[in-house]
Amino acid sequence: MLMGTAINAATSISFSITTVLTLLLFIPINGQDQFTIIEATIDEIQTAFDQNKLTSTQLVEFYITQIETLNPRLRSVIEVNPDARSQAEKADLARKRNQGRRFLGELHGIPVLLKDTFATKDKLNTSAGSYALVGSVVPRDATVVERLRDAGAVILGKASLTEWYSFRALGKIPNGWCARAGQAKNPYLPSGDPCGSSSGSAISVAANMVTVSLGSETHGSILCPADHNSVVGLKPTVGLTSRAGVIPVLPQHDTIGAISRTVSDAVYLLDVIVGFDSRDYEATSEAAKYIPVGGYKQFLNENGLKGKRLGVVRNLFSNALNGSTVITAFENHLNTLRQSGATIVDDLEMANVDVISNPGKSGELTAMLAGFKIALNEYLQELVSSPVRSLADVISFNQNNADMEKTKEYGQGTFISAEKTSGFGEKERKAVELMEKLSQDGIEKLMTENELDALVTPGTRVIPVLALGGYPGITVPAGYEGNQMPFGICFGGLKGTEPKLIEIAYAFEQATMIRRPPFVTPFWIDER
Where is the Amidase domain (predicted)? Predict the structure, then answer.
């Protein structure tokens, strides 16, 4: 039985242009001044709550209307939570009872979408975008979901993703495609790459279908879709946020992070979900030492670029981007960074970039194949009930449901390769050692020798560097190409350097304010 309110991506909804534009722009509150929800930040929403210009219930109703209106085209939401309205009503009641005696928190009453790999002990499915896990019952909420609920956030629903993180068939499954939602679309350029795997999380935030969302990253799955859909993506140091209750890929690399329209919104979300978790003991106990007293919002500093040393590693991106709009914009942004007080250390070269950028050579793919099988089997075994209990079961399901899962078109070659592995043996241990050495000789040596606070790169070329060592990164909208395809600027650093990265990213965002919402309506055409 399908749980939750599943969104039929093929449904055709008819609205008049006037009605749609009204829905997109304003919600009138009891005859008072209208509050604009489109592009509203968490700070603005909380102010509207305090001034009785908006309620959480009205905010949720707005987003549900947005989803009903836009999702048939964008296909970025799999299910809407049938309990979202009651959660919003509960938040409104708590605010009324509180009557301004104390601040209930930035996320109180704020709708959040979750990538469809975060376990929720409710009426929603947790399926990795596949029908194989529809109807499975999780034992409990993922830890980060528990923390969102404790903070008073409203769980709006589940966002689509590239099915099974695209790991079912690497290089074969199109970015943004999953069986349950279909092919997700970039809201700025329908023919453009939405990237993956947290594509639905990024698209939904970009198109104002939710305030903020949670994604996960093993190798680019937050940073890339955020870059491609003109939103902020914050990938934390591995272990800073708990992975307990999240469908895994490779625990050594998996991390949970925020996707939002502004740096401040991403930081508010990060502050709620970070911290030690006994269910993810080893990683979170190690990373807990990095969490600053007072949290991360103290680093939202408009002057955060002053005194920072930023490294530009040309051999990471020049060959791919030379002469492009992205490079031209990047050079202009470097000037902005300088004018804001940063020192740019240019023309740096990182050792072994070609190896680092190739998962087959770096050892990453070898570790992933074995690690995925082990971690997924453990996750499936812990489910209260499930149609599948192992990777082998999932492979059989896909084979037996080839039409539904498009197995003939996209295959499941990576799954089959992973199933053939037999644990973490000598080959896998050597792969991990190689990744560690590449990181030590690469980003760690480069940043230490040049006394850098962060690396800065256009687009997504730094992703493999950050993936290998579990390093943090944050991408901020940086412009649009001639066809309106977005691109971002990425700041990456060593483990635990989130305070510096937040200062840098926030100051850059405030100095540029480049992001603009996409123009998308129910009448939006599939190609342009």
Answer: 59-461
Are 25 and 145 within 8 A, CB to CB?
no
pTM: 0.94
Is residue 115 part of the annotated active site? The answer reads yes
72, 11 in Cβ contact below 8 A? yes
Whether pLDDT at 9 is above 90: no
Catalytically annotated residue among 136, 160, 197, 213: 197
Closest CA to 258 of 147, 164, 133, 127: 147
Q: What is the DSSP annotation of 356-401?
A: HT-HHHHSHHHHHHHHHHHHHHHHHHHSSB-S--SHHHHHHHHHHT
Token digits for 255?
Answer: 């991390």
502, 474 contact by CB (below 8 A)? yes
Q: Which domains does the chain have, with CATH numbers?
A: 11-97+106-287 (3.90.1300.10)
Structure tokens at 59: 């905010």
Marked catalytic residue, from 130, 204, 213, 221: 221
**Contact of 474 with 270, CB cutoff 8 Å:** no
Per-residue pLDDT of 153-208, as tens digits, reads 999 999 999 999 999 999 999 999 999 999 999 999 999 999 989 999 999 999 99
Q: Report the alpha-carbon distance of residue 446 to residue 349 in Å, rounded.
A: 8
pLDDT tens digits for range 81-120 = 999 999 999 999 999 999 878 899 999 999 999 999 999 9
Backbone angles phi, psi at 84, to 5 degrees: -60, -40
Length of the chain (residues): 528
CA distances from 217 to 275, 453, 496 (A): 18, 22, 17
Distances (CA, A) of 190 to 76, 194, 276, 305: 13, 9, 40, 35
SS3 310: strand
Element (H, E) at 98: helix 84-98
Distance of CA 66 to the CA centre of its chain: 20
pLDDT in tens, 311-363: 999 989 877 787 789 999 999 999 999 999 999 999 999 999 999 999 999 99
Residue 156 is encoded by which pair of tokens?
Answer: 């709006």
Closest CA to 210 of 276, 258, 170: 258
Query: Which listed residue (53, 56, 76, 115) is catalytic?
Result: 115
| Known catalytic residue at 197 | yes
Please answer whether residues 459 and 490 qualify as being in contact, where contact means their C-beta atoms are separated by less than 8 angstroms. yes
Q: How far is CA 192 from CA 185, 188, 202, 221, 485, in A?
A: 8, 8, 14, 17, 7
Examine the residue annotation and report whether 185 is marked as an active-site residue of this protein: no
User: In the structure encoding, which two tokens stand for residue 157, read together?
Assistant: 């629903």
Amino acid in the structure at residue 501:
L
